[in-house]
Amino acid sequence: MILESRVIVHTAHLSLILQRLSEELLERHPGFHNTVLIGLQPRGVNFLNRLAMVLQARLAVLSNDQSFSSGGSLSESESHGRLRMPAQGALDVTFYRDDFRHRSEPLSAHTTQLPFSLEGKKVILVDDVLFTGRTIRAGLDALLDFGRPDRVEFMVLVSRRLRQEFPIHPDYCGIEVNTHDDERVRVCWDEPEGAHITLIKTTG
Amino acid sequence: MKALAQANLISIRDLSAEEIDLIFTTADHFKEVINRPIKKVPSLRDTTIANLFFESSTRTKLSFELAEKRLSADVVNFSASGSSVSKGETLVDTVRNILAMKVDMVVMRHPDAGACQFLARNISCPIVNAGDGAHEHPTQALLDAFSIRENMGTVQGKRVAIFGDILHSRVALSNIFCLKALGAEVMLCGPATLMPRGIEELGLSVTNHVREALEWCDVANVLRIQLERQETRYFPSLREYTREFGINRKLLDEIKKEIVIMHPGPINRGVELSSDVADSGRSIILQQVENGVAIRMAVLYLLSTRPQLSL
Fold first, then answer.
1. Which residue of B47, B72, B143, B297 could cross-link B30, Cys pair, CB 3.0 to 4.6 Å?
2. Quick check: B86 pLDDT over 80?
3. What is the C-alpha to C-alpha distance for residues B71 and B57, in angstroms, rounded to an integer?
């Protein structure tokens, strides 16, 4: 039962976070050469779709900026590459989870869509909330069954401290929050009052 | 998501239309998995499954074994020939001995109808019926309906005709239950001697004329004449059976309608189905075999992940 629900990140703040995360991506992956973004089904994919919209808009601005795209210290190929969106995929980890028998109700699977080879790619796994770390652990297993990427990074919108059960740390983090076991973090994208993140207190 | 209500899969009649749909959507995901370069997921790596085949089988046994291995389960195989069954051990004793070695699930084929039902009353682990006598073969019916859904979008409202030896066929009975549950219309076609009396009461039509059934149906599921189950002669000769009930290219061309041809295998080429039909574009026989692995993965996965169950 829900006891209390509190907004912890408002719409304006969330949009700033998305902008910062897309800037970090641009900074660390110039040109997105051989780089792919893979969202974990289902909520990581929702987050990735929003992030991709912000990233797309940012790339459009950069491509109009003459001094950025033709001048500076960038070489021709780099400046050309800067304007390309990285490929995106969706990964379902249901069959890779280690906790499916410990849940009160069974998990439903979603589709996996990886329309590219992972060989030699730089993969950024994207999820909305990092809690125990078990989902991303399963995500790594699932990912490696599709090929051998050069490098894997992890982006999360909300990192819940105090409860991580595996030595997993995000490379890109939207916001860190301190939470208890009886609390849940929900990222709401399609709300009439605008996208936001809430903290929900529950019983048990 | 819903879960399966029953701990076993013994009869299609135990499944609701929603549960069949749950098996289908799960099988969709597993079909994607078995078409990957690495055709394996680690879901059942903590589960040991025993395949108990008290009756010979090639396709079903291989299909179950592959499904189990694709789910990373440990598999032990048992076949009646050369086992202690020939030394006089009872079925329950044989299975209890196997379970004592810490096996979590049982897949069983048995020549006697009701063997799985009987076993389920005596042991506590999940059982999947891989065919019991002339009674039921639920996973075959599920994969047949799944193949129809895949080719025609839905099973609801489709007309499916089942041809051949209905009397000795567990595939026919399971198919009837499954198709009816999903809202398809069913017609049976075969010699009167191989048609169980009173089968119309299941809510289907019966004919002895192949042409009539072919003109009516969208899907033709052609069964094998089970010569090994027939002590008496139900028809004068195989040649006469082929002339009256065999499906060939000429017959299908005269119908002027696209009919999907299915067969649960093994085919007796030139008896119930001519080679030019079995190998034509209308035939989805090999697709059925591929779907068999995905359906069995879905059944094993859903049975082993039922929340009430702690292995």
1. B297
2. no
3. 21
Residue B84 domain boundaries: 12-137+290-304
State the ipTM, two decimals. 0.73
Tell the burial category of A8 from Cβ atoms under 10 Å away from its Cβ (0-12, 13-18, 19+): middle
Q: Which of A95, A101, A145 sits opposite B310 (nearest CB)?
A: A101
C-alpha to C-alpha distances, B61 to A123, B36, B51, nearest whole angstrom: 40, 22, 8
- Spell out which residues of chain B touch residue A94, defining contact as CB-CB under 8 Å: 29
Would you kindly state where each structural domain of chain A is located, as residue ranges?
Answer: 29-100+112-179
Domain A29-100+112-179, second-level architecture: 3-Layer(aba) Sandwich (3.40)
In angstroms, rounded to a whole number, what is the distance separating the alpha carbons of residues B76 and B74? 7
Q: Do B40 and B267 touch, CB atoms closer than 8 A?
A: no
**Predicted confidence band at B174 (pLDDT cuts at 50, 70, 90)?**
very high
Mean pLDDT in residue range B165-182: 95
- Chunk chain A into consecutive blocks of 10 residues (it has 204) and report each block's average pLDDT, rounded to whole numbers: 84 93 92 92 92 91 66 48 80 86 71 89 94 91 91 94 83 90 87 86 74
Torsion sign, CA atoms B280, B131, B205, B24: negative
Which amino acid type is present at position A96?
Y
Do B231 and B276 touch, CB atoms closer than 8 A?
A: no
Which of B33, B39, B105, B300 to mutate to probe the A interface, most A CBs <10 Å? B33
Yes or no: say if A118 and A143 are a contact pair by the CB < 8 Å rule: yes
* Structural tokens at position B246: 């065999």
In a domain? residue B309: no
Per-residue three-class SS string for B260-278: EEECCCCCCECCCECHHHH
